Amino acid sequence: MIRLCHPSEASIITAIINDAAIAYKGVIPEDRYHDPYMSLLEVESEMRNGVVFWGYLDGEDRLIGVMGLQDKGDVSLIRHAYVRTTNRSNGIGSLLIEHILQQTEKPILIGTWATASWAIRFYERYGFNLVTMQEKERLLRHYWDIPIRQIDESVVLSNVKANTDLKLEMTDIHPMIKEANVSDSEQILALQKLAYISEAEIYNDFSIEPLVQSIESVHEQFQHFIFLKAVANDGTIVGSVRARSIEDICHIGKLIVHPNFQNKGIGRRLLEGIELAFKQSSKYSLYTGSKSNKNIQFYTRLGYKIVSTKPIHDQLSLVYLEK
To answer: Which pairs from 256-261 meet CB under 8 Å and 24+ separation?
Structure first.
């Protein structure tokens, strides 16, 4: 039987995903495979962001397979399709995708690993075709929130007959940089947790402070920090940064930009804005992870220099930079 999954079943869904994802070990690039493959926090975040899971139940009403569908406006995405290892080759995946295809009349896109040949063949049997490499880059950047490294190693399949039939209106985004207030806390915290997932993946640590920070803690920080926000035309907060002054030094933290809006100069404008807000400071100080090469390169381009490194655990050291 196939039915909708309830948010309370997130832990069961996570277990199914991690059991089935063992198939990726040794197949996808080593730096992309994690054990566990997905955390409960990630699955819960996906559900909050609109991924609706359908589940297949065995004769004892136990979930043994799941497939997600995410409405993205002009298209729908099939997300996180997995069947428990012990229940494979029993037609469960086929039953799930046949059910999913009946749930929407919109064009459907599927992203998977380029080396997962069995998954590609499975989707092709149901009328999906690989899009071009150029189209893949465009679609993954627009509809998915995934790291660049994952984009490089992925493919996209579409059930649209011709790739040229799938039109994508890319909005020209020039967000305004404004000072945030405490009423923005929930939006900023949600964006923060989304933005830091890629960092957690780098260090295989989903307990880092930005991912577990509470809303009460953010409210408290508004009493001591100045927050800036980047606001898109529709009022959505797509970036943020916060800072406070201690002994004439401006300490900058949590410079974040929504994955869909990166590489548009928003991070630079936020950083320059917070520096201007603390222009009387003797220097600016911030830190990032030692393996976060993109962050380090970004800060050094804007005049920051590495001054020290502090080990946190085997996988993570913090690099402190000043300007």
So the answer is: 256/191, 256/192, 256/195, 256/196, 257/195, 257/230, 258/145, 258/191, 258/194, 258/195, 259/145, 259/146, 259/194, 259/195, 259/198, 260/141, 260/142, 260/145, 261/173, 261/175, 261/230, 261/232
Q: Taking a C-beta distance cutoff of 8 angstroms, is the pair 49, 29 a contact?
A: no
Q: Write the pLDDT tens digit of every residue in 163-182.
A: 444 544 434 446 789 999 99
Q: Which pTM value belongs to this model?
A: 0.53
Superfamily of domain 176-322: Gcn5-related N-acetyltransferase (GNAT) (3.40.630.30)
For the segment(s) 2-165, the CATH number from 3.20.20.70, 3.10.290.10, 3.40.630.30, 3.90.226.10 is 3.40.630.30
